[in-house]
Amino acid sequence: MISTSTSKCPHCGERNPTAKPFNQMGTAEKVAYTGFMGAGSIFFIICAIIIFIILLMLI
């Protein structure tokens, strides 16, 4: 069984036929769907900018 709140099975990767496509989800659903990956991407970008600024100051 696959939960109706997920897009695929976490164990085997089977796609959930009842899941909404990403482009039809509301904002709250998109935030819940992207979850940690969205926050991780923002953290990575901020770290990259900080490292870039530090490198510029060393030159």
From TrEMBL:
Transmembrane segment boundaries: 31-58
Keyword tags: Membrane, Transmembrane, Transmembrane helix
Protein name listed in UniProt: Uncharacterized protein
Keyword Transmembrane tagged: yes
Region (Disordered): 1-22
Taxonomic lineage of the native organism: Archaea, Methanobacteriati, Methanobacteriota, Methanomada group, Methanobacteria
